[in-house]
Amino acid sequence: MTIVVIGAGVIGLACAYELSDLGLEVTVLDAGAVGAGASAGNAGWITPFLSVPRAAPGAVRDAVRSLFSSAAPARLRPHLEWDFASWVMRFLRACSKRRSSRATAALQALARHAHEHVDSLLERGVTFEHHTEGLAVVFKRAANLQQFRRLTDRMRSLGYVGEIEVHRGQDIVAFDPALRPDLAGVVHLVSERHVRPETLTAGLAKALAANGGAVIEHDAAVRLQSRPGGKWTVDTSEGRQLEADQVVVAAGYASRALLKPLGVPVPLEAAKGTSMTAYGRGTAPSHPLKLYESMVACSPFGGAVRLSGTFDIGRRDFELDRKRLDTVVREGLSYLKTWRPTEIDVEWVGHRPTTADDLPVIGPVPTHEGLYLATGHGTLGVTLGPVTGALAAREIAQRTEHALLTPFRLDRFGVRIRTPELV
Ligand SMILES: Cc1cc2nc3c(=O)[nH]c(=O)nc-3n(C[C@H](O)[C@H](O)[C@H](O)COP(=O)(O)OP(=O)(O)OC[C@H]3O[C@@H](n4cnc5c(N)ncnc54)[C@H](O)[C@@H]3O)c2cc1C
Q1: Cut 0.85: pTM above it
Q2: Ligand 1 centre and the CA of 292: distance in Å?
Q3: Is 364 near ligand 1, meaning CB less than 6 Å away?
Q4: CATH of the domain at 88
Q5: Do residues 40 and 197 make contact, with C-beta atoms less than 8 angstroms apart?
Q6: Disulfide check for 236: which of 159, 240, 357, 366 has CB 3.0–4.6 Å away?
């Protein structure tokens, strides 16, 4: 079986590597460079605990408030388009208590396997920067810490087994000397991990090449066509025509536009985020930190520190918004005692591919034999990339269905999918 994977982000590469490891012939096609989309400048957390959909009760109130605040960490940029209106309507529906509880349980069930699949990559010789100091959620306000502790009870009831420690008062600085001593407290999710995401995509691409797989960079898929007998052709911007028995669409937010001409509507929207990675002076954090009130992520990577944040739904441009990035940096630094950036390594923007219920879309398109989707991982592509790759590859290679992926099929949206025209 020959397979073309569209998109060399963490999702496409994880699928491609796993498929190649099962002995299949794989070519990955990317419009840009390997791992240069959303999978580049993100926080790199592998966090089963925080694998919770944003579509939840309370999200609507926050979205309405964000329309009136330019400094809100999450913002909504409306568009006068049917696709956007329909995305918002579905999002609103997904925020009901019942739907959001069901979605959380499904995400938790999948995310529970995140670490074992990261370990499996490491065991098979995939190399990347990988850290095991856990993840610390840091609070300025005691009331927020109390509220978060209720979430830990809920996660326990859903089967989360990781160790959790709470640090307060003098314990805070003993736990991580980079933190200010006057903070309200820290919840240390001891079992969580983080990776430098650029090294994960580079490591997967290298391992894919070692298995005989190919990566074509700077060449975009412009048209997918299904042929008789379940075959596919992929036309590219550079004039290639690739043939395949199976096409995996893992093009992040751009998957929506790629699939639309096939009559496969995926309710996907871009949620723009931004980050600054810098070297600095002072005491750098020794743990990745979720800076709770500011919704900023702080990740230490081999000498550098990355501050990332903003969740701007409907912002589809690639412009670096200086004001938004400055707010992320300022808010992030307000939790740190002495560390300050002195040498900027990279400033970045990326689009989280976000579905209307904030769950990924993973699985075959039932009406289009040989077409498989792996996208929409929103805030969790790094966490869920390795497990998505492994399970999707098994489904494709063995033509089986994995129960853990059932909640993530496209048909949950009740979208009308056009029957393909064969050429
Ligand atoms: C600020 C920020 C912080 C984040 N932190 C975390 C975190 O800590 N943990 C976590 O789990 N997740 C995190 N995320 C989310 C994570 O980054 C994404 O979920 C993940 O990177 C999505 O991966 P992807 O492969 O689907 O998309 P992408 O990485 O965007 O890859 C899609 C690829 O498809 C290519 N492409 C697009 N169109 C075409 C075409 N027509 N033909 C060929 N190629 C095409 C693009 O060039 C791109 O390389 C964060 C995101 C942001 C923005």
Answers
A1: yes
A2: 23
A3: no
A4: 3.50.50.60
A5: yes
A6: 240
